[in-house]
Amino acid sequence: MYKWLQMSELDRELAYNPKKAVSDHERFQNLATKNASSFRRKTRNKFLDICYGKGLKQKLDIFIPNNPINCPVQVYFHGGYWVSRDKSDHSHLAKPPITNKIMHVSVNYDLCPDVSLDRIVEEAIESIEWIYNNISLYGGDKNNINLIGHSAGAHLVAMALTKNFHTSSTFINSAALISGIYRPEITMYLSVNEKIRLSKNIAQVTNVFNYHLSTKTKILVIVGEHEPKEWRELSIEYVDWLKKNNVKTKLFIAKGLNHFTIVKSLADPESILSNKLINLAK
Questions:
Q1: End-to-end distance of the chain based on CA atoms, in angstroms?
Q2: pTM over the 0.85 mark
Q3: Residue 170: pLDDT above 80?
Q4: Residue 249: CB partners within 8 Å, gap ≥ 6?
């Protein structure tokens, strides 16, 4: 029997609902939104709200380094348990890559309950295919795309890696999955499912572990040291699954960081995490 089924409602929320686990999460999220807005205002080399699909939120922002010529491309999928947050809350994460001649793309997607989770997965895949087909127009290298996802965004990256793209099979150079939720069925037992409205069928369709993965993509799995033990175990389980699929991967425990401070670290050009992501793209 899965661990979350044996837990009390309170313990389950504390273990698998990051907003319950970190009491001052709003402070970090509000600061991120403020920093992101400031970064967008000050940054000239940008293209905002580019449509990549028909959904209302199927838009992306592109932040470009100076004089881009065939630059590596970093693609970021935000978290928010598939029900909240926005690419505009994370624009400042582009600072470390663009100062290192790496293009940064921040992806929006429609949210539950407006669309179902399986549709969000499809949108993530559509965004990657759009980037592959169009990023060279902005100076990016379509054969060096590096995916990054945090929390629910990490789940979207994990699902995308299991898919057969209609484009080149070797264009995803690396993937960094940060503090991910890889078993959506857990949310069926959490308060957040009032908005996700996840059914058993969609939970199975969007469960990463129900797929096979064969890829040469470099995969780095990251989780915060100060995240709940049960949440860290999700990343450990995902790494074990990758290894069973003969996929080379590494697990990195981010010392001193929780579910929200880990995102703050990504915006710091001097942080260990931002430099790990930069090195993945090179």
A1: 42
A2: yes
A3: no
A4: 219, 220, 221, 239, 242, 243
Residue 157: name the closest of 132, 181, 188, 131 by CA: 181
Displacement of CA 105 from its chain's centroid (Å): 12
Which position has the token pair 């090195």? 279
| 262 in Cβ contact with 179 (< 8 Å) | yes
Asked if residues 78 and 153 have their Cβ atoms less than 8 Å apart, the reply is yes
The pair of structure tokens assigned to 35 is 């920093």
Are 204 and 262 in contact, with CB atoms under 8 Å apart? Answer: no
The answer to whether 52 and 81 have CB atoms below 8 angstroms apart is: no
Phi, psi of 269 (to 5 degrees): -60, -20
What domain range includes position 9? 3-281
- 72 closest CA partner among 127, 126, 131: 131
For the chain, the domain total comes to: 1
pLDDT of residue 31: 82
Cβ neighbours of 178 (radius 10 Å): 30
Residue 172, SS3? strand
Q: Which residues of 51-60 are buried (b: 16+ CB within 10 A; e: fewer)?
A: ebbebebbbb
Give CA–CA dist 252/174, Å, rounded. Answer: 15
Report the candidate in 40, 62, 44, 76 with the shortest Cα–Cα distance to residue 139.
Answer: 62
Mean pLDDT score of the chain: 94
Phi and psi torsions of 224, nearest 5° = -75, 140
DSSP-assigned beta bridge partners for residue 74: 104, 146
Q: What is the CATH number of the domain that holds 142?
A: 3.40.50.1820
Which residues, in sequence order, are CB contacts of 32 under 8 Å at separation 6+? 89, 90, 92, 263, 264, 267
